[in-house]
Amino acid sequence: MKLLALALLFAAATICAARQDVFAQSPGQSRATEDITSISVALSQLHPDPPELVEKDVESNNISEWIKVQWRSDDPIYLYVVRPTGIQKPPVVIYLYDYPAETDVFRDSDWCEHVTAGGYAAVGLVPALNGQRYHGRPMKEWFVSELQEALAKSAHDVQMVLNYLAERGDVDMNNVGIFGVGAGATIAVDAAAAARATSHRISSREFPHLTRFPCCPG
């Protein structure tokens, strides 16, 4: 029995080691440092991994992509990029909804149809400590209790997403807007203020077609 117990312990240790290897930090993530006292990502050192295309769907009026991006250890972000067909470099709107938020709305065909109306591209993501991004933390540490961290990291995420969109080159980075609801609106204001100090600009003009869509997913 002792030999069997030792064998089981050895097997468990081997599995744990294998899991640690699977979730090992990339060299960029291991060097990452983040200052959550500032809304500007310029004071942090976040190094993005190469983006990974998870799924692509081509419809008659739009093309949607589900992309995994990551610049923190154990915090992959699922980014949803929807572009209208037949338009080169459309203006783009980033969507941030209130807590609690999930990715389901971004995968809804009606949502994709609406947000690309008028020739706009749309980018959706879930804020930090939300949805699939809330894991590996004690239950007492959640979006509201860790609000400074959640808002700062989410504002940093928007700035990193802007960098990613600029590298893609298929949307108009001179016409970028953010649509935010609740906590998403706070993140939008923070990210827009921080972006003023960078080469990216968040447009202050109105996007009239957004007012005709329900403000909350679901």
Can you give me a brief rundown of this structure?
With 218 residues, the chain is α/β, with parallel strands linked by helices. The chain has a single domain, classed as Alpha/Beta hydrolase fold, catalytic domain (Rossmann fold). The chain has 5 helices and 6 strands, in the order H-H-E-E-E-E-H-E-H-E-H.
Instruction: Supply the CATH class.
Output: Alpha Beta
Strand order of the largest sheet: 1-2-3-5-4-6
* CATH superfamily label: Alpha/Beta hydrolase fold, catalytic domain
User: What is the distance, rounded to the nearest whole angstrom, between the alpha carbons of the first and last residues?
Assistant: 55 Å
Query: Strand share of the residues?
Result: 15-25%
Task: Name the CATH architecture.
Answer: 3-Layer(aba) Sandwich
Reconstruct the topology from this structure.
Layout: H1 2-22, H2 27-30, E1 52-58, E2 62-69, E3 77-84, E4 91-96, H3 109-115, E5 121-124, H4 147-168, E6 172-180, H5 183-195
Parallel strand pairs: 4-5, 4-6
Antiparallel strand pairs: 1-2, 2-3, 3-5
Helix pairs in contact: 4-5
